[in-house]
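Q: Could you write out the predicted structure for this multi-component system? I'm mainly interested in how the pieces pack against one another.
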Amino acid sequence: MSARDRKTALFDHLKRAILTTALRPGYDLDEVALCAEFGLSRTPVREVFRDLDGLGYLDLRDNRGPRVAELSHTTLRDFFLAAPMIYGAILRLAARNATPAQIDSLKGAQEAFRASLRDKGPAERTLANNRFHEITGEMAGNTYLLPSFQRLLIDHARIGMTFYQPQTNEMASKLSDASAQHDAIIAAIEAGDEGRAATLAEDHWNLSRNQIELFVMPTALDVPMGSFSRSSPA
Amino acid sequence: MSARDRKTALFDHLKRAILTTALRPGYDLDEVALCAEFGLSRTPVREVFRDLDGLGYLDLRDNRGPRVAELSHTTLRDFFLAAPMIYGAILRLAARNATPAQIDSLKGAQEAFRASLRDKGPAERTLANNRFHEITGEMAGNTYLLPSFQRLLIDHARIGMTFYQPQTNEMASKLSDASAQHDAIIAAIEAGDEGRAATLAEDHWNLSRNQIELFVMPTALDVPMGSFSRSSPA
DNA sequence: AAAATATATTGCGTATACAAATTGTATAAC
DNA sequence: GTTATACAATTTGTATACGCAATATATTTT
């Protein structure tokens, strides 16, 4: 195994571990440990760190170890603002520009996603879903939109992993909804139907947003008015 | 002068040289020459390269020297698609979130821009204008929109330098228009008027777009129909 | 006992040395 | 004359070593 392969292995490992929150937001990485684990010296390891910093996976601070990018309240707010706009634009452009080879690639990714829903855990499902959307980004092929889109995908994956983790029960139906939407997205792209692609982007976003909101904002208890006294004693 | 200062000096130098097209798109950088010029060894110089690659200034290819990011026909098309959307979103959010300190900073940048219009050349003007818009990006403060916005600013500066360069004559009035729009943008942000900020973003974009289009598409000659024979005799 | 300063230890940043790969050139064969 | 191959030179990538800065700990002083 060449040094280059070991370097890309490290890159892929960190990317996956961060997306699936196996490495939690804010986690401090150990440079020398990773050197030993992947059989690399510090120089190439630090280059990988810098690349991941540029892509938004890591946060590099001076004279301090690299840290997994934080996922704060503020970033969540930013996420909700930016995501619908960018997702819509990306799918619209994907429908406009997708090549046959890319469509095949997207179908493959959707097949893998469906397979992961059958017999894999949350981490694998997240990665498969992430891959699907990464390909739509490649299809859109817009140099300027892509960096923002990719950052959104990183945190979308991580938000998903942190929030929907526990309730795997009622997740199932929502996930098959998501899978059905993926199929519709593929169809719209293949037909070159930009308007439909944009609509589906909105639908897909709404599904995801509802899921997230369920766990951020606790559902109000469905209780008749007046059951609780206004001034709660003690 | 410490090594760190020399490193940031190199970073700033390359950033400015690329924005002003003193280093043209596609230009191959000489690693060792820059090491000598800035008194650094190869390691920190290569780190600067990687940072600039992540930000979209440079293009790093394997086993090949770093190259100034290309500015192709395709990227120009992408630029026209993405810019209005992102610019609008950024100014809208800037109006929503700007802090008093940031507004002061923006006023300072506008003052510097106006000064550059008086007694500086195209490169200084481009840098001053770039700085103004960078601050609006900071004001918006959205983690996800910022990377795309910054990439747009890079190429907006470079497109400006390549196209409006020669005709400094008729440029003057357009530049004072741009300066007036900057003032209006500051006012809208200070008032927290999101709608007006978004409208001004559109106006500012249209002004810039018209400028660019004038040089990309040669203006049709205003000649009566039939002046040219259909089949041109070679 | 608490606080402050000195000292030790960890680890980040830079430099240099070495290895691998790519490119240019020269020579030979077709 | 053109093309292909081999070899040399330049350049890129990786490894190791050193110096400095930041933080933690211990000892001293108030």
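A: Regarding packing and overall arrangement: Residues 31-32, 42, 46, 62-65 of chain B lie near DNA strand D (CB under 10 Å from a C1').
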